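Quick one, tokens below. Sequence please?
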């Protein structure tokens, strides 16, 4: 079992800028974490604020932030998922992970895994350390060895007990009071504690002392339990601390999807549905599951993750989340076309659908629409917006018709245009919803001469109309209007109409 943990001071390892400054994290009235620079000046965990200032001046004190810790722990856990499906952050030791190392014989063995884990861990701390052992307690102790400063340290299988015999008691997890008591009795190493009788230990120090005695003898039940080996389509992750937002979950979901999708793609299969399950704390702990179903099976992580992100963004949390599970709920045969790197005209409808899903999650289910025509001669009723759920695959660029094709008829040219001229650009008609009232000055025949709207005034150079439109008498809102197309002296075109209630501006042409 590899153990990944931050490093103590070493001379040859690189130093991060923040680790070279005397900084401590304070929780309540005690020091909870220190940088290497602060430790060299005598500041250690458990000190009071006054003791820390007396030992090191100047000293930067920052508050312990559980939310930031949970987010960064989730990010690191997600990165370690790229190496092993069994990743468990130690709940009582921030910055420490138990990672499963079984089943890697065909992938380079424990050595290759430890090397990869070390490279991943040093993205967070340049002096992170990795150790491999049969038990978590031995791996944790081995990370403090000077031999682990430059390369992963391996304890041979079956040698955890001899190795622990010389380990200081300070490296065994136990209560500070118990550690001080054992030290007062002259017990300095795990081997000295392990040599005592179990009954004597339990009689003197109770269950806590017996638990420390078992650890000293290499009896450690802690294991990395992230993945479920009986179900290769599931990755479950226990968070180091409950979170109240879905942001820390995104790192775990992305890493889990990447691992699961790659495994399916290698088998020629794609994902048809993903189930996300959140385990929530509270008076009544519960598991809540929701599914993401793309329009077509997908064998790529990015579009699936975008859909899962949209789901989590719209997922209201009424209790802290302590675990997340990613399950491939349904699989299908991978589509024949998953993308062509040599075809620049290739389009990915799955990526487009994922982007639209995020827009719907952010702005509502009716945020993504397309224009459609309606069977009506009234301008404001001849079109509408229709919500879309899926994206159709567009034709490739090389299949579009071009004017260089000699078999195509020449494009039509407007009357009076010179031969070979390009057709006029299409006009974009913009309609107001709803129409707005305007003040119109008309001549004796009722033709508009001047239009006033929103404080502006337009002089009408030419007015085309009236065009009498009426209809929808069978609906609650029938209409009867005189429509005008008014071209102002500065070239703008306004679409107006007059009904029984007065003059209205319906829109304009760009």
């Amino acid at each position: 079992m590899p153990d990944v943990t931050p490093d103590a001071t070493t001379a040859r390892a690189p130093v991060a800028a923040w680790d070279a400054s005397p900084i401590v994290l304070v929780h309540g009235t005690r020091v909870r974490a220190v940088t290497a620079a602060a430790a060299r000046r005598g500041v250690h965990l458990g000190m009071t604020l006054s003791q820390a200032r007396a030992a090191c001046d100047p000293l930067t004190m920052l508050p312990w932030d559980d939310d930031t810790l949970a987010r960064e722990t989730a990010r690191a856990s997600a990165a370690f998922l790229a190496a092993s499906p069994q990743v468990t952050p130690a709940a009582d030791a921030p910055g420490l992970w138990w990672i499963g190392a079984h089943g890697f014989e065909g992938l380079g063995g424990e050595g290759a895994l430890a090397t990869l884990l070390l490279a991943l861990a040093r993205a967070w701390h340049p002096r992170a350390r990795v150790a491999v052992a049969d038990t978590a307690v031995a791996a944790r102790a081995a990370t403090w060895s000077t031999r682990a400063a430059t390369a992963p340290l391996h304890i041979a299988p079956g040698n955890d007990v001899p190795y622990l015999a010389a380990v200081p008691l300070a490296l065994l997890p136990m209560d500070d009071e118990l550690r001080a008591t054992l030290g007062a009795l002259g017990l300095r190493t795990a081997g000295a504690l392990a040599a005592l009788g179990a009954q004597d230990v339990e009689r003197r120090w109770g269950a806590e002392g017996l638990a420390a005695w078992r650890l000293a003898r290499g009896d450690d039940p802690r294991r990395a339990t992230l993945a479920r080996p009986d179900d290769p389509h599931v990755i479950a992750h226990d968070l180091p601390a409950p979170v109240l937002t879905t942001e820390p979950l995104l790192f775990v979901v992305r890493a889990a999807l990447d691992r699961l999708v790659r495994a399916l793609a290698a088998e020629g299969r794609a994902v048809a549905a993903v189930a996300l399950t959140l385990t929530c704390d509270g008076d009544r702990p519960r598991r809540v599951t929701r599914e993401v179903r793309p329009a077509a099976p997908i064998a790529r992580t990015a579009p699936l993750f975008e859909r899962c992100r949209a789901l989590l963004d719209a997922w209201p949390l009424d209790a802290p989340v302590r675990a997340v599970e990613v399950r491939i709920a349904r699989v299908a045969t991978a589509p024949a076309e998953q993308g062509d790197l040599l075809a620049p005209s290739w389009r990915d409808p799955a990526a487009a659908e994922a982007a639209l899903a995020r827009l719907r999650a952010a702005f509502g289910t009716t945020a993504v629409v397309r224009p459609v025509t309606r069977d009506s001669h009234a301008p404001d009723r001849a079109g509408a917006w229709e919500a879309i759920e899926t994206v159709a695959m567009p034709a490739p660029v090389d299949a579009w018709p071009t004017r260089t094709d000699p078999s195509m008829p020449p494009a039509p040219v407007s009357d009076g245009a010179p031969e070979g001229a390009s057709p006029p650009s299409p006009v974009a008609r913009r309609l107001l919803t709803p129409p707005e009232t305007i003040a119109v000055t008309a001549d004796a025949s009722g033709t508009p001469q001047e239009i006033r709207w929103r404080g502006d005034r337009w002089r009408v150079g030419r007015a085309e109309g009236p065009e009498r439109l009426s209809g929808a008498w069978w609906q609650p809102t029938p209409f009867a209007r005189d429509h005008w197309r008014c071209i102002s002296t500065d070239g703008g075109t306004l679409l107006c109409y007059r009904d029984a209630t007065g003059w209205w501006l319906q829109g304009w042409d760009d």
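The domain at 234-336+348-358 is CATH 3.30.1490.100 (Dna Ligase; domain 1). The longest helix spans residues 247-266.
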